[in-house]
Give the backbone structure.
Amino acid sequence: MVRDNPAPPNTDIMRGLNDIMILFLLLHEPSYGYEISRQIREKTQGGYVIRETTLYSVFSRLENTGCIESFSGTVSMGRPRTYYRITDAGRTYYRQKCQEWQEIRSLLQPFIEEE
């Protein structure tokens, strides 16, 4: 459900989920920053808009840990575009993060009151 003028999600909570979202989007094909941010906004129906600084910070961290790798791609407006692809280590990390999320959901469910 999308609320009118939703409040942005808590950044501490989202920090841990950004990895899952970005790696998910890279599972099947490489992509670039703007497209990934657009897909996140679309898949959350506008409920979460990742800031550019956050996005590139996550890219940098994931690349430094070997989860993704960057490469030059097609040219846009006269400049090469940087693409990202997931690595085998990134696939393993993605599966681990998904498992952690399932465990967290199970632990929290008894404390979630439905209206």
